[in-house]
Amino acid sequence: MAEVDTTALVDRIAALDHQIEGMNASITAVIIASAKQSKSADAIETATAVLNDELQQLQNLRDEAAEWLAEMEESERQARDLIALASMAKESFPGMAPEQQAAILSMMELKVTITGPVPDDRRGGVPCTVRAWYAAAGLGIPAAALSDEEWAKVAPLLPKGRRGTVRRSVDAIFYKARTGKSWPVVIKETGATIQASKHFNTWTSDDTWGRVCAALADVEQVSLPDLQLLPSMVIQGRVDPSVMLNAEERSRTGCR
Questions:
Q1: Which of 136, 140, 143, 147 has the alpha carbon at shortest distance from 214?
Q2: 195-212 pLDDT, tens per residue?
Q3: Could you give the CA distance from residue 149 to residue 147 in angstroms, rounded to a whole number?
Q4: Buried-most residue among 40, 172, 208, 231 (CB within 10 A)?
Q5: What is the distance of C-alpha 206 from the center of its chain?
Q6: How many angstroms separate the CA atoms of 98 and 253, rounded?
Q7: Residue 113 banded pLDDT, cuts 50, 70, 90
Q8: What is the C-alpha separation between 65 and 139, in angstroms, rounded?
Q9: Are the C-beta atoms of 195 and 180 separated by less than 8 Å?
Q10: How does pLDDT run across 74-105, given as a tens digit for each residue?
Q11: From the CA atom positions of the chain, what is the Rg in Å?
Q12: Which residues pair with 113 in a beta bridge?
């Protein structure tokens, strides 16, 4: 199955539900109209046959989308479990007694097939400039897109720009810092232009960006994220939730 964004699937299911609701309403209206005309059951069935066929097609599409969504949500859950397991293993597994290690391994039923290379947060061998700047500065990042009041604090420090380009660049830079996503993805998701990257390079070279960050020091901040760089993969199987518990928690809950 090709990769599909879960949000797109949720929207697709909602749209199909709306179409199904409308189709049911149309069928009901035809039945009522036919009944008022004293038509026979066969005549009503004939009148609604095409609509019922279309309704069934919509329901099939809806069921297929719901199945895809369930599969994707399960894959995402398994991926989260794998990351949590890797973190636990890195910190705790080496220091466990052999019998504890064996008990944990017995609770794992996973088959992981790597289907692509490990992603890199670099482009052309050059580190992400936004991430590198924040790492060097040791500063937090505004937790959300700037409000009008927050924008008013930094607008005088920046060129005016046209049609909101500069403001979109600012929000795009913060968004990239918060998510670690590539510029093409950031531009697509924020509505900014390719000028955002150029703006950042210009503003950091003359310390404009440092002054922008200082002006927003009282805004709610988040830390530079610790990116989880994993290759594309297919995960099959399951992890017993109790494997995520530490030894004390497993003893308290009765898990061995």
A1: 140
A2: 899 999 999 999 999 999
A3: 5
A4: 172
A5: 34
A6: 21
A7: confident
A8: 42
A9: no
A10: 777 777 776 776 676 667 767 777 777 777 66
A11: 27
A12: 234
